[in-house]
Amino acid sequence: MARRTLAASALSLVVLLGAAACGKDHNTAAQPSTGSSDLHPTACGSSQLGWKMTLLPGKPHNTPTAMLNAAHKGPKPCAFDGYPGLELWVGKGPSADAKPKKPTPVHLVLKPGHSIEFPVFCDAVGSPSESCDILAENDPRISVTPPHRAAHDYGSLVQLTDAQGHHVRAQVCGPDDPLLDAPQLH
Predict the structure, then answer these.
(1) What confidence tens digit (pLDDT) does each residue in 61-87 have?
(2) Cα(98)–Cα(177) distance, rounded to whole angstroms?
(3) Per the CB 3.0–4.6 Å rule, which of 20, 105, 123, 155 could disulfide with 173?
(4) DSSP annotation of 9
C-alpha cells in the first residue's frame, strides 16, 4: 500500500511539474519583448522606409503611370497595414491626394531588406478637353506617409524619376485624383 501511495504521489508530482512548465512556456511566449516582436511587429514608420517613385514608360490605357516603392531599411520586421498617404502639391496652391483604387485591405509584414510596390494610376499627360490641376512646369512636391503613422512622423519627400533615376516633373491632369492599386511584395 505504501508503494502505491508513493508511486501515485510521484506520478502526481511529475504531472504537476509538467503542467507548470507548459504554462510557464506559454506565458513567456505571450509576453511582449522589449523591442518589436516578430509575432506583433510595430507599424512601419518613415525612418524605417526608403521611398522612391518611378514613372513608367508609355501611356497605355488602364495601366499604371508610376510605381511607388517602399524599401524596408530597419533591423526588425514592421507591419504595413493599409495604403500609404501620397500627396502631390504646389506650394499653397493646388494639391492631389491619392486614394485606393479598390478598397482592398492591406495587412503585410515587411521584413528587413524587402520592399513593397504600389502601382499609381493618374493622368499625367492630359488631353485638350481636360485641364491639369498640377502642372509639371511648377515642379510639384510629392510626399509619402506610411499607413498608421505616429503623430511625430511627417513622412518623406519623394522625387518622381524615370527608369534611369533622372528627376521627372510630376503632373496631374483630368477630373480624378491619383489612385493606388493593391501592393506587391518584393
Answers:
(1) 678 999 999 999 999 999 999 999 999
(2) 6
(3) 123
(4) H
Distance of CA 21 to CAs 9, 16, 18, 26, 105, Å? 18, 9, 5, 9, 39
Query: What would the DSSP string read from start to end of 64-132?
Result: -SEEEEEEE-SSS-EEEESPPEEEEE-TTS-EEE-EESS----EEEEPTT-EEEEEEE-BSS--TTS-E
**Pairing of β 160-161 and β 49-55:** parallel
148: DSSP letter: T
Q: Report the residue count for the chain.
A: 186
Place of cell 499625367: 124
Please state the rounded mean pLDDT for residues 28-49: 63
Residues whose CB is less than 8 angstroms from the CB of residue 120 and which lie 6 or more positions away in sequence, other chains included = 53, 64, 65, 66, 67, 68, 86, 98, 178, 179, 180, 181
Query: Given CA atoms 2, 5, 8, 9 in this order, what sign does their dihedral have?
Result: negative
- pTM, rounded to two decimals: 0.74
* Top-confidence residue, 129 or 22: 129
Question: What cell numbers appear for 13 in the block?
Answer: 508530482
